[in-house]
Automatic annotation (TrEMBL):
CDD domains: HATPase_Hsp90-like (cd16927). InterPro entries: HATPase_C_sf, Heat_shock_protein_90_CS, Hsp90_fam, Hsp90_N, Ribosomal_Su5_D2-typ_SF. Keywords: ATP-binding, Chaperone, Nucleotide-binding. It comes from the Eukaryota. It holds the Pfam family HATPase_c_3. One of its GO terms (molecular function) is unfolded protein binding. This is Histidine kinase/HSP90-like ATPase domain-containing protein. PANTHER family: HEAT SHOCK PROTEIN 90 FAMILY MEMBER. Belongs to the heat shock protein 90 family.
Length: 279
């Protein structure tokens, strides 16, 4: 196990202060989701040019709340980090992972959609957390790493038993930020900041009815179509909004759905109804 102090020098502390000296602590989720998106888009790019010899698959970002344990989990299936990369991008807060990546792949990555600055944005987690953990495994064939810090310059870095590619960030929520353990609060923030992020974001599950056509089940004597309720991932964003498509690809239903996404309040049920009786 490695222990040490995070290297925050005078020349690199000012970007942190400038970017995160806000009274509004809710930006932490936006930043951590952006980091997970970056990690996923970077992996997509590396697999597309043949540098990452792994299957990209259909990755998602998942947000989970452990209200009893006072924890928030943000999990991605992106390129992950090695222990050396954790040391470089997290402990030595003088680098911008995205800038370095784009500099190396500036020609081929120009249109890859990579945003954000992993490392700097990550520290917004301490706005709401008294302790933060990172459990990460790189797409490279190297052991997983587990980083822990309580908000002081002290940290620990040790091997982890994670076997799947990607990164899990665990926020141990501070007593003055317990509001962020409420589902409605996190759901609201995800819809506010991440509605159109390019990677699907899962927040819990939901029930959906699936139609079973006549004759699908021999044992059924019902001649009418029936519906079965199943539990599916609750994907809170639209990774492929209307503006990413050609007009010829859009139907009237697509335009209506887009309007509903942009102005959801207009489609909510009123809290009460007024009935007028006219004689």
């Amino acid at each position: 196990m490695t222990t040490g102090k995070i290297n925050v020098s005078v020349e690199n502390i000012f970007p942190l202060i400038k970017k995160f000296l806000y009274s509004d602590h809710e930006i932490f989720l936006r930043e951590l989701i952006s980091n997970g998106t970056d990690a996923t888009l970077k992996l997509k790019h590396l697999t597309s040019i043949g540098e990452a010899k792994v299957e990209y698959g259909t990755p998602i970002i998942e947000v989970k709340i452990d209200k009893e344990g006072k924890k928030i989990h943000i999990i991605d299936q992106g390129l992950g980090m090695t222990a050396d990369e954790v040391e470089k991008y997290i402990n030595q807060v003088a680098f911008s992972g995205a800038e370095e990546f784009l500099d190396k792949y500036k020609d081929s990555a120009k249109d890859s959609g990579i945003i954000g600055h992993f490392g700097l944005g990550f520290y917004s987690a301490f706005m709401v957390a008294e302790k933060v953990e990172i459990i990460t495994k790189s797409y490279k064939d190297e052991p997983a790493a587990h980083w822990t810090c309580d908000g002081s310059p002290e940290f620990t870095l040790e091997p982890a038993d994670k076997t799947t590619r990607g990164t899990e960030i665990i926020l141990h929520v501070a007593e003055d930020s317990l509001e962020f353990l409420e589902e409605f609060k996190i759901s609201g923030l995800l819809n506010k900041y991440n509605k159109f992020m390019p990677i699907p974001i899962k927040f819990g599950t939901k029930k959906e009815k699936i139609e079973q056509k006549k004759g699908e089940f021999v044992e059924s004597e019902d001649k009418e179509n029936t519906f079965t309720e199943v539990e599916v991932d609750n994907i809170i964003n639209n990774p492929n909004p209307a503006w990413t498509k050609q007009p010829t690809e859009l139907s009237d239903a697509d335009y209506k759905d887009f309007y509903r996404e942009m102005y959801p309040m207009q489609f909510e049920e009123p809290l009460f109804h007024i009935h007028l009786n006219v004689d």
